[in-house]
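[job 0412] stage=fold_complex status=start
inputs:
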Amino acid sequence: MDGHRRLESTDRPPAVGVLFNYHSAVVIANTLKKLSPKMRIELVSSGLDLSENDKRKLDSLEILFTQPNLVQSLKLHLLPNLKWMHCLIAGVDLIVETLKSEKSISSFPVTRNASYFDLQMAEYVIGIILSRERRIADVHENQRNQIWDQEVFRKFRPLTDISIGICGFGSIGKEIARVAKTFGIKVYALVRNLPTEAEQSPTVDEYKSIGELGDLLSSSEYLVSILPCTPSTNGFYDGDVLSMCRRKKTVFINIGRGNAVSESTVIRALNEGWIGHAVLDVFDKEPLPAESPLWSHPGVTITPHISGTHMIPERFVKVALDNYNRFFRGESLLNIVDVNKGY
Amino acid sequence: MIRCVQTEIIKRLFGGKSVNRSTTLKMLSVDPSSSVGASMRKEEGTRPLVGILATFVGSPLEREIADAVQKTRPDIRFEVFVRGKPTISEKEMEDLKSCEILIADPNIILENNLVNNLPNLKWMHCLWAGVDRFTRSFSPSGPYPSYLLTRNGDFFCIQMAEYVFGYIIDKERHITEMKKLKEQSLWKRLPYRTLSELTLGIVGFGDIGKEIARVAKAFQMNVWALVRSFPKDGEQGPHVDEYRLSSDLPELLAASDYVVSILPSVPSTDGFFDGDMLSHCSPKLTTFMNIGRGNVVKDETIIAALDRGWIGGAVLDVFSVEPLPDDSPLWTHPKVIVTPHIAGLCISGSKIAGDFVQNYDRFVKGETLPYTVDWDKGY
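[job 0412] stage=fold_complex status=done
writing structure:
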């Protein structure tokens, strides 16, 4: 397989380049060193003004651990010897874009840090649901006014009475299903290919194919989109798609990528009463520009792309380390990105 | 001959307790001229009279329960429906007193001096999980009522867990703060921790505590539980990392990022966290949550613990006096969240009806009922 090679006993292991936001890069490098003392690590920079030393480092690099937005600004032709790139983030769309635009260079496998972010994103989703269902904002309001009122909270629905539709059923989607099931929420999962009975997960009540999206939308109190950013997901929810949410006035949560739904769609869906609320963590442009009408729309909750951004160093580098060992043993790598599919 | 058969049926019904003739006759009082009456006569002996004492005027909950039971089980003689507030009329009193089974909030029973005034009552089923006001109204050694009291021990578990994790995640992931940032059109990323890096200490490890532990484990939290006695080998739950006894409370507090008290109100839990007990929370600036009963910690203790930097915050659903008095400093302390005893308030009438019906069937067969209150223990 391209990019793999066995490490001969006489070989000095090639250095691993770490290209990441500076402070985190240092933490990552130190963590890697701690867990794998024999690993050679080079902190590298991207950017416009690379010194001769920087260019030399990049030139000899065979392995790069990195993040997508820095790859964008890196000139890949400066890494002619690259044999494997590992993205320390789950969302690889910017890398895929970059690789596609420099076709001659993408002969190495790209892997990504799937699984690391799953639980914290599921936590975010359940937190949003609980906060709404248990009306925490109203509780705070009553406390501010020193009002003791039980009656107003008497009619809340237990999570066992609601359904969640999960669009994008990779490792994050599966983790959301698992946590949702912990609370007894009914789970619908949107998948490209319906699984066989043996492949079905016990945490999913019903699988729906893309053609059954309408079914899923009209059955879910909450819709969570974790769709990756690919040409086929552009505007996935645009047009009249969200009108199918009107039966339950679904709450739409987007923690995937901003390309899946336009601002105007969200606003229209809210104003038409198709969806009950929109919780958006991702946007076409981030940070969300101040002039965006989403900021002032009462039906929108904005979170600044934080559903999965917390680094627990030793866990964060686990997939990278696992793949590092596999790379030198000639074993297949985990979480390989299919550049054509885009994820 | 017929009378003997009927007495036998009734004896079986009530687990062999002696039943006096007047009770028997009362149960059999059906209009004999009704064509249904004769055939019902034999059946009536097996069908105790059920009533519900509705707690909240205007709340549809008890109506939902009554309707659901009547709809799904028309065989159950659910014939008495009385509103507990503002007052109970004389006729309604008589109706209540004729019930053999009553679904009620025991506090309303207390308030209306009905505790020892329900001569036909064999079984009272409380809608809620906590019966402490009722049980603490008796002197420690009795005498206790002759009827059974059951409570809703497991129904509320998942709702209590929803409450606990709702507030924990809201705090850790800054959900409330982010709303404020949005109002200012501010894109600002606040650093956060994940639950998987935190320790939860559960004080009071009944069914609610166990449910909270189960959910905590789904988030990969580290879980400590305070128990009366260590579980035997093989009985240790899969969701607890460390068990501790009451005497080890300081160690549990020091280890916990969040502590949840679900302790019932009994004499031995009065002031459980008072004094300087909460000083043990300072290493992790524990957030103290109380969803059990307010007797375990005074308002002043919480305020002092916050101001001394012992605890980092408090989320309180229960208080020594409820509603929380206007002048309580808890209302306005910036690190205190006051919720009006709502952690387990969510009810679906049909679910409670289903629960009651299951117990009813056990009751008429003379089987033990789950969550029968032990008068000595107080819960």
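[job 0412] summary: Chain B has a mean pLDDT of 85.
[job 0412] exit 0
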